[in-house]
UniProtKB/TrEMBL annotation:
Coiled coil segments of this chain: none
Name listed for the protein in its UniProt record: ABC transporter ATP-binding protein
Chain ranges of the ABC transporter domain: 5-232
Top-level taxonomic group: Bacteria
Length: 232
């Protein structure tokens, strides 16, 4: 049972002699209700894999599924709607809207699709992420760790089918990073959310249920129940 899946996925950038094959026939499922880490050398295709699985970028050939939905069968409008309603995103650079408060940022994906947050979910996320007294602040009035906690809250309050996180702890100190990872872990354990996280950090990957290693655009290995030592 996959929250998201790539089947025979090929992604080529450019044409002819200058073409780069970023994904080279990748078939991989990201299991529902699990925390998956994606690791691999710089340039191995991790971001491309994530962007294609999340419908942010199109495959050259092969298929990407979110649940049972084949993304290649959707037009742009349907794809935008699927991303808003069924996917959560966390980026290394936080990507908060500067003119909106923390609360408005957190609720933005719901607002954009005409929905309102479940009050109980919002309360729990805000309290676990210790954002209760920051909800009316704008991003410039928040620390880096607080900004990333807002971004994580935004990705999770709509309870999407799958959350994609690209180096979510890359810009944080160790303590803020551990806090985010602990929260992601609890969202999986307590609420069966499905999380796919790209990371360079073995200590971050150790929070995951399994680690997918990407090398040269291919899935090289999958390790279950990783420890920081087993994924270096
Ligand atoms: P990673 O996330 O593992 O660092 P990427 O998915 O960013 O790897 O990149 C995989 C390969 O695709 C690299 O060789 C990179 O240079 C190339 N690449 C990524 N994005 C583009 C792009 N927009 N145009 C051309 N080449 C790209
Ligand atoms: P259901 O929605 O079927 O009642 P859930 O386990 O999804 O079961 O939610 C139960 C409660 O857990 C919710 O009412 C809310 O308080 C909380 N909750 C649900 N999803 C999340 C989440 N992603 N993060 C934090 N709390 C959540």
């Amino acid at each position: 049972d996959a929250a998201a899946m790539l089947v025979g996925a090929v992604k080529r950038y450019g044409f002819g002699q200058s073409a780069v094959v970023a994904l080279d026939d990748v078939t991989i499922g990201f299991p529902a209700g699990k925390f998956t880490a994606v690791m691999g050398p710089s340039g191995s295709g991790k971001s491309t894999m994530m962007h294609c699985a999340a419908g942010l970028d199109q495959l050259t050939s092969g298929r990407a599924f979110v649940g049972n939905t084949d993304l290649s069968a959707l037009d742009d409008r349907e794809l935008t709607r699927l991303r808003r309603e069924r996917i959560g995103f966390v980026f290394q650079a936080f990507n908060l809207v500067a003119t909106l408060t923390a609360e408005e940022n957190i609720c933005l994906p719901l607002t954009l699709s005409g929905r309102r947050p479940n009050a109980a979910v919002l309360d729990e996320v805000v309290s676990l992420l210790r954002l209760g007294d920051r909800m009316h602040h704008r991003p410039t009035e928040l620390s880096g760790g607080q900004q990333q906690r807002v971004a994580v809250a935004r990705a999770l309050v709509a309870q999407p089918q799958v959350v994609f996180a690209d180096e979510p702890t890359g810009n944080l100190d160790t303590r803020s990073g551990q806090e985010i990872l602990g929260f992601l872990r609890s969202a999986v354990d307590r609420h069966h959310q499905s999380i796919v996280m790209v990371t360079h950090d073995p200590n971050a990957a150790a929070w995951a249920d399994h680690v997918v290693f990407v090398v040269d655009g291919r899935v090289h290995d999958v390790i279950d129940h990783p420890s920081a030592d087993s994924v270096i």
